[in-house]
Amino acid sequence: MKAWEANIRKVIPYVPGEQPKDADIIKLNTNENPYPPAPGVAEAIRKLAGQPQVLRKYPDPSADVLVSAIARYYHLQKEQVFVGVGSDDVLAMCFLTFFNSGKPILFPDITYSFYDVWADLFRIPYECRPLDAQFRIVKEDYYKENGGVIFPNPNAPTGELLPLSQVEDIIAHNPQVIVIVDEAYIDFGGTTALPLIEKYDNLLVVQTFSKSRSLAGMRIGYAMGNPALIQYLNDVKYSFNSYTMNQAALAAGAAAVEDDAYFQMTRERIIRTRERVKGELSGLGFEFGDSKSNFLFVTHESCPAEELFQALKKAKIYVRYFKKPRIDNYLRITIGTDQEMDALLDFLRSYLVS
Ligand SMILES: *Cc1c(COP(=O)(O)O)cnc(C)c1O
């Protein structure tokens, strides 16, 4: 081993779902929205492309156009909103800013697999609390002394929603630390904890434009909380990179938030498709919880998940499979268009009878 090897920050990186180049693949593996972003988004980007003199300059470090649009939409003060390069960037900044007590932070054993990666990267101790047999968060598991709490609601990759009253119980039992509720999927049928930021100064609600607003490619995420927390996040951001958000992302994000009618229409469409597909999958021998997200987490009564994953892949239908304890017989299937889901169902129907 080279002498310098001892002083390298070694990490085992997060592995995102595959992004195949082949255009005829039905892609149900990374929870992207199957519908395009609001029409105003393309228009905003076209407008920017027509003003190269604007691109010459650095973007607004305060990201005001986007922060203002988000604040207006949720009836918040601008001082209550922080934006970043996808919620992954926002969450990483949160870990760095808020989890410094030396005590273990708490999150579920089955959850977004980036949490333990950030904890390891920043040398934050952590403890995973097991979900119950139905893959539900047990709120009492988060009442013990800790260095911070984070969980997605709905949880990923299970899709299970923790009722708002239980989310509040967890926040109320943790006044000494910051509690982060990662609401990447909240727009698909959950109730946001956002109103609770007025009542609890230790709460941060994190959301993203990647799923419900069809903008995974632009990388836009945001955190909402009391102005002191947002200020601390901005201090860390400005100590890291003043310009995390580029001009195109700022313009696209602002345009997306402004079109609420389009947002409601696409969100409802996905929910409708999800509920229909639940019925069809039940008929094919699949079991799953009552997902309130844009994906289903399913297991089959007789066919092993890994086998199905490979068979689907061969048929050019990509879903997500996690070879991990407790969930290695499950598939996470993103809700696509009705047409995409019908192709999936047709394949499953013929595969499972043969
Ligand atoms: C998708 C996802 C994110 C990150 O999304 P970004 O694209 O970085 O905004 C964060 N948390 C959970 C639980 C997710 O599923």
Structural notes for this entry:
By secondary structure, the chain is α/β, with parallel strands linked by helices. 36% of the residues lie in helices and 14% in strands. The chain has 11 helices and 13 strands. The strands form 4 sheets. Strands 2-8-7-6-5 form a 5-stranded mixed sheet, with helices on both faces. It has a 4-stranded antiparallel sheet with strand order 9-10-13-12, with helices on one face. Strands 1-11 form a two-stranded parallel sheet. The protein starts with 25 loop residues before the first strand and ends with a helix. The mean pLDDT is 97. It binds pyridoxal-5'-phosphate (PLP). Pyridoxal-5'-phosphate binds next to helix 4.
Q: What would the keywords be for this entry?
A:
single chain; 354 residues; alpha/beta; five-stranded mixed beta sheet; four-stranded antiparallel beta sheet; 36% helix; 14% strand; globular; binds pyridoxal-5'-phosphate
Give the overall shape: globular
Q: Helical proportion?
A: 25-40%
Task: Report the portion of residues in β strands.
Answer: 5-15%
Q: Treating each run of at least 4 consecutive H or I residues as one helix, how many helices?
A: 11
Order of helices and strands: EHHHEHEHEEHEEEHHHEEHEEEH
Rg is 21 Å
Mean pLDDT over all positions:
97
Strand order of the main beta sheet, please?
Answer: 2-8-7-6-5
Uncertain segments are: none
> SS-based structural class?
alpha/beta
Total number of beta strands: 13
Ligand roster:
pyridoxal-5'-phosphate
The largest sheet is:
5 strands, mixed
- C-alpha termini separation: 54 Å
